[in-house]
Specification:
InterPro entries: MHYT_dom (IPR005330). Keywords: Membrane, Transmembrane, Transmembrane helix. Pfam families: MHYT. With 295 residues, this protein is mainly alpha-helical. It has one domain (4-246). The protein is built from 9 helices and 6 strands; from the N terminus they run βααββααββααβααα. It has helices spanning 12-33, 41-68, 82-104, 110-133, 145-168, 172-195, 213-237, 241-256, 271-278; strands spanning 4-5, 72-73, 79-80, 135-136, 139-143, 197-201. The strands form 3 sheets. A two-stranded antiparallel ribbon has the order 1-2. Strands 3-4 form a two-stranded antiparallel sheet. A two-stranded antiparallel sheet has the order 5-6. Helix 1 runs antiparallel to helix 2 and helix 2 (41-68) crosses helix 4 (110-133). The radius of gyration is 34 Å and the shape is elongated. The protein starts with a strand and ends in a 17-residue tail after the last helix.
Length: 295
Amino acid sequence: MAEINHFEYGWITPALSYALSVLGSFLGLVCAGRIRTATGSGQRFWWGLLAAWAIGGTAIWAMHFMAMLGFAVTGTRIRYDVPLTAASTVIAVTAVGIGLAIVGTGRLGAAKVLGGGLFTGIGVAAMHYTGMAAMRLNGDLNYDATRVGLSVVIAIVAATVALWLAMTVRRGLAIAGSALLMGVAVNGMHFTGMSALSVHLHGQRGEVTGAGVSTLLVPIVLAVIFVVVGLVYALLAAPTDDDRAAAAYLQARQVDAPAVEPQTAPDPVGLRARSTTLGRPGTPFPSRRDAPPPR
């Protein structure tokens, strides 16, 4: 059995993975809070998609591969199958998106939260073990069934709590605390699943094919940066509840305001009356003799 090191670079990789999970959870909770306040199905779909990308793509998937940067097996190199790695991304985002769709439509109840958490938790576990299956090394991967089952239970519980928080938490401080809690749960699930792994090396070293860690690091970091920047921009550009209230108030003022009749300028010294009189047929124009003498 080969020696496994989960923290080859010390505390850097677990600290970064936790930071990613907290950041993605925070942005995801903020986006999910907009789902139930959205005015139309298009807005609900948009905010649900952003929340799924934040939680599934950043808090779960990017956190997983950031933690995998510190994973090493003595006696073999580690490579990754790119199609399977991409498939794990789709699984994570889709699972979270469907879970949000379950709890984000209609009246929120315990059955919805439990059902969405069960589906999402299984999807998160599937993402984790799909990402593990994408590893290519000179050996065979074996898992302890008990710890695998425990990691799945942790994923289901974490997903259920995350969905419940996404639909109920609104305050900034509460969202930050919930994100910290979700970061602990996601990392706990990951390292519990990793502790179930054992590697048996092959007798002879074979050629290991696939993308290296450094090759995957650049696109992962760029994807995280673009996702985070896009989410922050979407949140800043979206109208808040105060903006909607102000717009509704101004619209109500315009509707309730009485119609103002156009006002005419006052007639100076009866010029309008004189012009009307002079314009009648048969009315003589004043002569110079009729004019008053100059003073």
